[in-house]
Fold this protein.
Amino acid sequence: MNKGEQVIEAFWHLLSKMMWLNEFKMKELLKDYKPSEVHCIEYIGKNSDSNVTRLARYFHMTTGAITKLTKKLMEKEVIESYHRQENKKELYFRLTERGEAVYEVHEKLHQEFQNRDNPIFEQIKEEDYEKILHFAEAYSGHLDEEIKKLNVKSRIKF
């Protein structure tokens, strides 16, 4: 296995472990919501004037898939749609009171996970963070270019 493959495998195992470990608390406290729903709620909670296009671009999903997801969230009464005064055509989303409660639970869980993992991050030197972030940004950019090459019409373009 070459170094690149080792890095990808290491990241894959790292993310798998993190997701597995976090899943217990998430399922316990957010049992009525799928992970995709919770992350959509999180995005809408953090980004005003969220719409289908922005959600699709952020989650690398089709607009049709986002439309289905937001419809489910509206049925669960955690988000609501609205039109902006200057743009009656575009549909936007915001959290309802119930959605705000889900958002707050999710944020508290993130903080709990961050506190749990903080001891390892405190050991990392600033220059190592810079290298890790540089790699992540470069690799992400590379993957964006590969996605563009596919020119898949059902996906949002980057």
About this structure: The longest strand covers residues 87-95.
